[in-house]
Specification:
354 residues; alpha/beta; Rossmann fold; six-stranded parallel β-sheet
Length: 354
């Protein structure tokens, strides 16, 4: 009889954490029985498409702690997992251990980009030491920070994100010669306002350009207002949150991620897999993924002019764009495939369960 793994997600959108979790489960489903617990959201479509079992667990807030704990207790008691793997937040580690002390718990830290990020990292270190059996980080930047904050180095493992090959490709029908694209939640830490400002700068020189933004979030209204104020609505396309967003990357000439903070963004790996030149902010774990001048171009965060300069440079220089795209693809094949990520995670599962 297959051993059972319960995956707990703090949110269920179409973001990198959800994509990471689905990719991982696809790789281990033949060996383990799995169940995902998380709140309602658009990310459920990813689970349904891949026939991954799912049960509802509301997002944890300061107002529903008891209800959250009661629902989690019911899930744990009914499912009786052999292992709990929590993605993205440290709080469920404590609750899971409190309910089933004998069941091992793994926490994967995907990084924090909010105004209290240092506090979140500190609490992750504390939680990891006291209640987690293992902590996984998706970039060395986070690993070193957690160790600096007191997490036992023997408990922490670095496993880079990885993705499977992109099988489905969908067209974009807008007739722009140069297509710049991004996949990101429309939230402040993604820095999309700086990318929009950069397109405003570039469009004054290169008219046949379009920016395609795939994602949804609470900043959409502000971003649309910025587009209106800059009078560049003919250059900006909000495509919304779509399942399998990666299937549109094939349309882009350049992929840009202007984030203010990231750990190791899946979207850049997806761009690599589609042989697209990448421009990204020099923050967090991104420099571990993007080698400046070799697999992409790194720019300072919050710098619209630097973004514009990099975009214009890649539009003008076809050979550089092609070189970065090919080198990025080779890096994906070497270090960031689905198989590498799954095998390293499977090794941790076996070590803990056996």
């Amino acid at each position: 009889m297959a051993q059972k793994i319960l995956y707990i997600l703090p949110f269920m959108n179409l973001g990198g954490t959800e994509v990471h979790t689905v990719e991982l489960i696809k790789g281990i489903m033949s060996e383990y029985e799995v169940l995902v617990a998380g709140p309602d959201g658009s990310g459920i479509s990813l689970l349904e498409k891949n026939k991954i079992p799912y049960t509802n667990l509301p997002g944890l807030t300061t107002f529903n702690v008891r209800r959250y704990q009661d629902i989690l207790k019911g899930i744990l008691k009914d499912y009786k997992p052999d292992l709990v793997h929590i993605q993205g937040r440290y709080e469920p580690v404590y609750f899971s251990k409190r309910i089933l002390p004998s069941v091992p718990v793994i926490l994967t830290c995907h990084g924090y980009g909010n105004s209290i990020a240092l506090l979140d990292y500190s609490l992750t270190a504390i939680t990891g030491n006291r209640w987690a059996d293992r902590v996984i980080t998706v970039c060395n930047n986070d690993r070193e920070l957690l160790i600096k904050l007191g997490l036992n180095p023997n408990k922490i493992t670095l496993i880079y994100n990885g993705i499977s090959s992109i099988e489905e490709r969908k067209p974009l029908f807008q007739s722009k010669r140069f297509k710049v694209g991004t996949i990101a939640s429309l939230i402040k830490r993604k820095g999309l306002n700086y990318l929009i400002e950069a397109i405003d700068i570039v469009s004054k020189k290169i008219k046949d350009i379009g920016l395609f933004i795939i994602g949804e979030g609470k900043e959409r209204g502000r971003l649309e207002a910025l587009v209106k104020r800059l009078r560049i609505k003919d250059y900006i396309y909000f495509l919304g949150g779509v399942p399998l967003a990666r299937s549109y990357i094939n349309n882009f000439d350049i992929f840009v991620l202007p984030s203010l903070f990231e750990s190791l963004p899946v979207s850049i790996i997806e761009a690599y897999a589609e042989r697209k030149a990448v421009i990204a902010s020099n923050v967090g774990g991104i420099p571990e993924l993007v080698i400046d001048g070799e697999t992409g171009i790194l720019v300072p965060p919050k710098d619209s002019k630097a973004l514009a300069s990099a975009i214009e440079r890649l539009i003008v220089d076809d050979k550089l764009r092609e070189k970065l795209a090919e080198n990025g693809y080779n890096r994906f094949i070497k270090d960031f495939t689905f198989e590498v990520m799954v095998e390293k995670t499977r090794a941790i599962y076996r070590d803990i369960l056996e």
